[in-house]
Design brief:
The structure is a single chain. With 564 residues, the protein is an alpha/beta fold. It has 3 domains: 5-172, Rossmann fold; 192-352, TPP-binding domain (Rossmann fold, 3-Layer(aba) Sandwich); 361-537, Thiamin diphosphate (ThDP)-binding fold, Pyr/PP domains (Rossmann fold, 3-Layer(aba) Sandwich), CATH 3.40.50.970. A 6-stranded parallel beta sheet has the order 3-2-4-5-7-6, with helices on both faces. Helix 7 links the parallel strand 6 (129-132) and strand 7 (157-163). The longest helix has 15 residues, at 52-66. The chain is globular. The N and C termini lie far apart (80 Å).
Length: 564
């Protein structure tokens, strides 16, 4: 009997359905018309964004909330290259994406054809793997591998580039969700001997801290982390990417470390005799001057990616494996040490060094920290908050109470302005029954402001809080501190009226200029259906403190600000 033949475009749609994909983020164009024609009759939901970069960021937000790969479609040439920032962002933050791009027909590749770009070459450094499909026969295997690679080991983006003629080619379609790739065999179970060494280090330590990152979130390790911290009475420090892995309202939680971390977190890392590092990269924003980082501590480092262990700091007990599985193995053998004196020292540091920014206003201007604290106060623990990048990102990390994993979405490694709003769209589609808040700046919001049309058209209940200081605030802060207040091109002259702009898109727009108006606006926004934009006018030259200057030890802190 002759085998049934299937078009390449139909194979892709069928494979997505077999992988359990429910929504695709994308923007059509000439090279992907055959794929979109198949999508027309499928059960998959497609979210039409207004810019391909937003498709990648929205899929990223969706993936962070669900734990499943976000899926993106884009056309060839500029459609594909517009994805690059979002791909790099996902790569740096270990977020699973499967991106399917159209390419010019096979016979035209390499001729500089209309809307041709070598997207596999361009994205090679920022994808976990990528493919250029030569024949429709390859598609079943490539699609299966792509989902497997994106969602196993250290997660990340995988791109599949498909020439237009391959979409129309016919071949036999036999799809197997189960996949094995020769040479690709991530280690999940930690080495038993190393786990025993870690248990002994924990037992013997007098000043231990747990330092956790995004790997805790990706591996679903929050419960194991809580049990370890609570049973062994070990304080917890979380990187920007790890926020939410341990409840932010617990007494053992010390905050975020590093350049804009809490004073207590930085002191604790500097004075600890043991650091239990879980799913972190020891990036430069955390370590500061490397040769002075944690000079008193022995370090246990647990990570699924062996390349991260020992990359930046010397490790005493390396454990390659899934963070959740390793922590659960440690818990089975755990022998808590005595940390009573250490916790007293921690408590003293916390009492003496509260986070700056407690005032509601400075003169006639509202404090941005107050706005974020008020948003936090009025949100429940199930609220998902997404941020863009800049001062507001750091203030949110400092002042928004994150209590649950997968509820704080931000661009950590790449630091991408324009990430937060499309990521909040993806988050809302991932969790339609949860409140989603995007905290952004007047600079960042305008990088993907066009996605207001996407949010309005899809009736998405998202509150967009613009911390509007009229500057590119973080750049201005560095000019203030390190460049003698020479504010070169950081004043955002020509900003639109965000309230009128929101209304032009069909969203609700509000403005708040003082504390009373801020509270009322937030309360009203929480009750609205559809997207709401609140323009918070704040102190224009407020700086983020504490701050550690570049290449300085993390306990060499510029405190600044008020401590009320």
């Amino acid at each position: 009997m002759k085998k049934k033949m299937t078009k390449g475009s139909a194979m892709i749609i069928s494979a997505l359905q077999k992988e359990g994909v429910e929504i695709v983020f994308g923007y059509p164009g000439g090279a992907v018309l055959p794929l979109y024609d198949q999508l027309y009759d499928s059960t998959l939901r497609h979210l039409l964004v207004r810019h391909e970069q937003a498709a990648a960021h929205a899929a990223d937000g969706y993936a962070r909330v669900t734990g499943k790969p976000g899926v993106v479609f884009a056309t060839s040439g500029p459609g594909a290259t517009n994805l690059v920032t979002g791909i790099a962002n996902a790569y740096m933050d270990s977020v699973p994406l499967v991106l399917i791009t159209g390419q010019v027909p096979s016979g035209f590749i390499g001729t500089d054809a209309f809307q041709e770009a070598d997207i596999t070459g361009i994205t090679l450094p920022v994808t976990k793997h990528n493919y250029l499909v030569k024949n429709a026969r390859q598609l079943p295997g490539i699609l299966s591998e792509a989902f497997y690679l994106a969602s196993t080991g250290r997660r990340g983006p995988v791109l599949i580039d498909v020439p237009k003629d391959v979409f129309d080619q016919e071949a036999h379609f036999d799809y197997n969700v189960e996949c094995e790739i020769p040479g690709y065999n991530p280690t999940y179970e930690g080495h038993a001997g190393q786990i025993s060494r870690a248990v002994k280090e924990i037992r013997d330590a007098k000043r231990p801290v747990i330092f956790g990152g995004g790997g805790l979130i990706r591996s679903g390790s929050s419960a194991a982390l809580e049990e370890l911290a609570d049973r062994a009475k070990i304080p917890v420090i979380l990187s920007l990417m790890g926020l939410g892995a341990y409840p932010g309202d617990r007494s053992l939680f010390l905050g975020m470390p590093g350049m804009h971390g809490s004073i207590t977190a930085n002191y604790a890392l500097s004075e600890a005799d043991l650091i239990i590092a879980t799913g972190v990269r020891f990036d430069d924003r955390v370590t500061g001057k490397l040769d002075s980082f944690a000079s008193n501590a022995r370090i246990i480092h647990i990570d699924i990616d062996p390349a991260e262990i020992g990359k930046n700091v010397k490790i005493d007990v390396p454990i390659v494996g899934d963070v959740k599985m390793v922590l659960e193995s440690i818990l089975k053998k755990l022998q808590p040490g005595d940390t009573a004196e250490w916790l007293k020292q921690i408590e003293n540091w916390q009492r003496q060094n509260p986070m700056p920014g407690g005032l509601k206003s400075s003169g006639s201007a509202m404090k941005p920290q107050y706005v974020i604290r008020e948003i936090s106060r009025l949100c429940d623990e199930n609220t998902i908050v997404a941020t863009d990048v800049g001062q507001h990102q750091m203030w949110t990390a400092q002042h928004f109470m994150v209590r649950k994993p997968c509820s704080f979405l931000t661009s950590g490694g790449l630091g991408t302005m324009g990430y937060g709003f499309p990521a909040s769209i993806g988050a809302k589609l991932a969790a339609p029954d949860q409140k989603v808040v995007c905290i952004t700046g007047d600079g960042s919001f305008q990088m993907n402001i066009q996605e207001l049309a996407t949010a309005v058209n899809n009736h998405l209940d998202i509150t967009i809080a613009i911390i509007n200081n009229g500057y590119l605030g973080m750049v201005r802060q560095w000019q203030d501190i390190f460049y003698d207040k020479r504010y070169a091109h950081t004043l955002m002259e020509g900003n639109p009226d965000f309230v009128k702009l929101a209304e032009a898109y069909g969203a609700k727009g509000m403005r708040a200029c003082d504390a009373k108006e801020a509270t009322a606006a937030i309360e009203q926004a929480m009750q609205e259906k559809g997207p709401v934009v609140i323009d918070f006018t704040v102190e224009p030259e407020e700086n983020v403190y504490p701050m550690v200057a570049p290449n300085r030890a993390i306990n060499d802190i510029i405190i600044g600000g008020d401590h009320s």
